[in-house]
């Protein structure tokens, strides 16, 4: 069991700002958990409060201790693979427009596709 974190005044200010204005909800939640642990809330209580496992809370606290605020940021996540090949996406204008509903059908067929 980790003892409550001892935070300096600048760390508290940084975490409070991240907990309310962080760029991603998961990052805000991690900052809130670090603040809660500093204030004496146990890992078990934090795990129940945020509906995550004890290991998740422990890793958030460890990352905070090792690298600071950067450790609470949202990391790269694997996502669904692109449906279109990059060449088709580029020629269709999807990369410029950003939304599939505004894209026009590509004039160049994908490799291996016959008309």
Main sheet overview: none
Rg (C-alpha, Å): 22 Å
Helix fraction by DSSP (H/I, runs of at least 4): 40-55%
The domain tally reads 2
Mean pLDDT: 82
CA(first)-CA(last) distance:
66 Å
Low-confidence parts, pLDDT < 50 over ≥5 residues? none
Number of helices: 6
| β-strand number | 0
Shape: elongated
Question: From N to C, what is the helix and strand string?
Answer: HHHHHH
**Which structural class best describes the helix and strand composition?**
mainly alpha
Strand fraction band? under 5%
Explain this structure.
This protein is mostly helical and 115 residues long. It folds into two domains: 9-72; 78-108, no CATH class. The chain contains six helices and no strands. Helix 3 (43-50) packs across helix 4. The protein is elongated, with a radius of gyration of 22 Å.
Brief account:
The protein is mainly alpha-helical.
Salient structural properties:
single chain; 115 residues; mainly alpha; 2 domains; 6 helices
């Amino acid at each position: 069991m980790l003892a409550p974190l001892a935070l300096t005044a600048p760390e508290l200010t940084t975490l409070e700002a991240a907990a309310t204005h962080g760029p991603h909800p998961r990052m805000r939640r991690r900052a809130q958990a670090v603040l809660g642990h500093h204030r004496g809330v146990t890992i078990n209580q934090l795990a129940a409060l945020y509906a995550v496992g004890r290991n998740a809370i422990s890793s958030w606290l460890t990352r905070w201790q090792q690298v600071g605020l950067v450790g609470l940021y949202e990391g790269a996540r694997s996502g669904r693979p692109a449906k279109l090949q990059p060449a088709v996406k580029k020629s269709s204008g999807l990369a410029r427009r950003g939304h599939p509903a505004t894209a026009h059908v590509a004039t160049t067929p994908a490799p291996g596709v016959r008309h």
